[in-house]
Amino acid sequence: MDPAAIASAVVAHYATVRRDLPWRRTRDPYAIWVSEIMLQQTRVQTVIPYWERWMQKFPTVTALARAPLDDVLAAWAGLGYYSRARNLHTGAQTVATRWSGVLPSGASELRAVPGIGPYTAGAIASIAFGERAPLVDGNVARVLARIYGITDEIKSTPGQRALWLRAGELMTALPAGDRPGDLNQGLMELGASLCAKASPRCLVCPLAAHCVAARTGTQADLPVVARRKKESELPILSRAALWLFTRGKLVLVRRRPEGLFGGLWELPQGESVLEIARAFGVTRFDQKPIAHHDQTLTHRRLRISVFCGEMPARLVEAPDPSYDAIIRVSLLEARKLGVAAATIAILTKYEDTPWSSTPKHSVSSPKVTRRSSKVSRTSASTSKTKTSRTPRGARRRASTS
Length: 401
Ligand code: SF4
What we know:
Elements: H1 3-17, H2 29-39, H3 44-57, H4 61-66, H5 69-76, H6 83-98, H7 107-110, H8 118-129, H9 138-148, H10 157-173, H11 180-192, H12 212-216, E1 236-246, E2 249-255, E3 265-266, E4 269-270, H13 273-279, E5 291-297, E6 301-309, E7 323-329, H14 331-334, H15 341-352, E8 382-389
Parallel strand pairs: 1-6
Antiparallel strand pairs: 1-2, 1-4, 2-3, 2-7, 5-6, 5-8
Helix pairs in contact: 1-10, 1-11, 2-3, 2-8, 8-11, 9-11
Iron/sulfur cluster binds next to helix 9 and helix 12.
């Protein structure tokens, strides 16, 4: 294995396939930081317009730091995984106060910024500052595991150690004159194209002569990845959501910034429709759901049942410790806010096939209570969603009152 030859081959290959992307036309570390965070979990073509709008709206670290979280989440709306936007915002505020709005230039200093981990620090330091800082993401891990025949599970401690060691070796061996950022981006590009998970194209790969997996025919066995639980094996978390929609205005509540889905707007949620109706001072509501939303998270499946309620004359403000704000907005206005993916899916379902927003059931003498919501203590990330409407025949008037 000749790390210098491998590094050179990667850089030379990158020069032939490098795409002209807007964040590649700048060395502004903030712009590169934003692009790297957006590109996590999201395709390049989707990111481009978001990145361009973001850089117009928040052109500097200081501009982002000063913006209200609501504006930041609204600019992120549609990209999903909102914790990325919240972390960017928190990181910008730290840079604004601790480094006067100027991102530090070394990978190790960058890691002191909240939300910047080893991968992002390596990307910013190598691309913006030309530092010989390695990085490992999923694509780079696949390429390195195959080239070097790394058989440790890639997310395990020994696997991570081996991958970062090899990435560091390549960076150290990079010939003078070659750009560290090109090596990192070249490895990522290889992993995203030629060295794909299934059917790697070894015959045209510039690293074939150096690659253990290609030589031994073990491409399908590498990298070693821990088996993920099947969807059917995940536990189900059931939640109730209240649909309060009158004269074109819908009630949404905002999660406190510190928890899961922090800062995002959603339909009022609770463990049961009765609990949530009482908490919000709603006296008339259906006991049969009008729609369901199913979402597969990393460690569980979420089922939200949506119940129709009647808008009370006076809504309870701050009814639940999970929330810090409540508003009535049109569906159009709601889409301009940072709204949780589940609520967006429910809005879309309603717009496709509107249901009656008049409840058929009333509860007498409700007591307004202040109860906490378990969902604020869960941790998960979205992968698959499905929203369905309850068939008309399945809805009936509830009899208890
Ligand atoms: S030779 Fe094949 S397995 Fe090895 S890095 Fe290239 S594409 Fe991947």
